[in-house]
Specification:
heterodimer; A: alpha+beta; four-stranded antiparallel sheet; B: alpha+beta; Ubiquitin-like (UB roll); 2 domains; five-stranded mixed sheet
């Protein structure tokens, strides 16, 4: 690796001060599973940084708390292993436990953070569709104070986010799940582990009190557009409907239309579009079944 | 910028080491502390040959900056054998013929050791998943999985040290 400076602040304020003082050319360092590899490879995806600011010792990024009305606070600095094994996440936001539990090896999961996965802005990030389907908001703190942003508005393109110099993503807020709801995430990969999603799909559904119609449907797709996306027209087509096989198949077909896949080494655009249909249909069925069982 | 002095407690022994910010934990442990059991394979966190425990968590030390490990506890392959006696995982690798060229083995043993602390009675599938981040180009893995399952059984029988 070529030289850079390294700062190890102990608080969020201290980290923000370092970015302010040192100016342009700095990058935040979380788990390092993407950033350090990119530095070793010469930093083709971004200008080689002059300095790194370690987020490892910021207690503000390790927040983790559940509140019945407000939902889950999830620090951006929590590791994939911490997220995947957390009881609240597993019980109330299972799609996120699914996604976090798929990222790389055990070693990767012990290092990589959920905030890093989101800020890296890969269209294939395994925590992104779950967080979208679960309607996560991102708290961003910077020199001009803080703001709360729906995660959907966080990504601008591959590797591109709304974060400006000196701003940090500190935590996610996930609203509490509705009664009679379920969520899950699956990805298609040729290998079971150590692979990157060809397509990733997350769904979250809630049934009405009688269990006869779908009160709420969220569908999020990974690796089929420049950023992770919601399939909003598919969601709207299904909400308020009885979950019949026909209605589910129709929604899956709409999700296919909403996908904007490209062809690359992992799969052709046609394969990806096909997978979106198959996976969305299967996941909706499974989620509805789970929501029924409660 | 001068080197920074960090504190690493490796296999129970505390060291102060002067490091550059861009040195990895693996480089520092091998070249500065002389513990060359951990290997560098890919250098990008994919092959697992450099696996060690950092504050009790299995990591690929080739993509951990040494400065990030300042103040941490590190366990390397050299820390497993006690009193001249191989750890049951190591002993099982020997007995089952799980080692060919040997380059991946320190990482394999560390990943297996980490698994058995979390899950003393794993299924074959759990062993396979736990070792997914450790690549071996010689053995085809079968003997490695057999060794891990045999070690698990022995450790359960002995109620052995973790």
């Amino acid at each position: 690796m070529r030289p850079f400076a390294h700062f190890a602040p102990r608080s969020l304020d201290e980290a923000l001060d370092i970015f302010r003082r040192e100016g342009e050319g700095g990058r935040p360092l979380a788990g390092g599973t993407d950033l350090v590899v990119q530095l070793k490879e010469g930093g083709h995806k971004f200008p080689y940084p002059r300095y790194l600011v370690s987020l490892r010792r910021l207690p503000e990024l390790k927040a983790l708390g559940w509140h019945e009305d407000q939902g889950l606070r999830l620090g951006a600095g929590l590791t994939m292993a911490e997220v995947a094994s957390n009881g609240w996440v597993r019980q109330r936001y299972p799609a996120l436990a699914d996604g976090a539990g798929l990222v790389g090896s055990r070693q990767t999961m012990n290092m990589a953070t959920v905030g890093g996965n989101v800020c890296n802005a890969a269209p294939s990030a395994d925590t992104a569709p779950p967080l979208l389907a679960l309607e996560a908001q991102a708290r961003i703190v910077g020199p001009q104070g803080e703001r709360l942003l729906p995660l959907e508005e966080f990504w601008l393109g591959p590797g591109q986010t709304v974060l400006r110099h000196g701003e940090l993503l500190t935590e996610f807020l996930l609203p509490p799940p509705l009664p009679r709801s379920a969520s899950l995430y699956r990805r298609h990969t040729p290998r079971q582990q150590m692979d990157i999603a060809v397509v990733g799909v997350a769904v979250a559904v809630a049934l009405d009190d009688g269990g006869r119609t779908l009160k709420k449907v969220r569908i999020a797709l990974g690796a089929v557009a420049p950023t992770p996306i919601r399939a909003r027209r598919a969601e709207e087509a299904l909400e308020g409907q009885a979950p019949s096989p026909e209605a589910i198949a129709r929604a899956a077909a709409i999700a296919q239309e909403e996908a904007r896949p490209i062809s690359d080494v992992r799969g052709s655009a046609a394969l990806r579009r096909h997978l979106v249909g198959v996976m969305t249909e299967r996941l909706l069925r499974e989620a509805i079944e789970r929501a029924r069982r409660g | 910028m001068p080197k920074r002095v960090i504190t690493l407690t490796v296999n129970g022994e505390t060291h102060e080491v002067a490091v550059e910010p861009w040195w990895t934990l693996l480089y520092t442990v091998r070249e500065e502390l002389g513990l060359t059991g951990s290997k560098e394979g890919c250098g990008t966190g994919d092959c697992g040959a450099c696996s060690m425990l950092l504050d009790g968590r299995l990591v690929t030390s080739c993509i951990v900056l040494a400065v990030e490990a300042d103040g941490c506890q590190v366990t390397t392959i050299e820390g497993l054998a006690q009193g001249g006696q191989l750890h049951p995982v190591q002993q099982a690798f020997v007995e089952k013929g799980a080692v060919q060229c040997g380059y991946c083995i320190p990482g394999m043993v560390m990943a297996a050791y980490d698994l058995l602390r979390r899950q003393p009675d794993p299924t074959l599938e759990e062993v396979r998943l736990a070792l997914a981040g450790n690549l071996c180009r010689c053995t085809g893995y079968t003997k490695i999985y057999e060794a891990v399952l045999a070690a698990a059984e022995r450790m359960r029988l002995e109620g052995a040290r973790g």
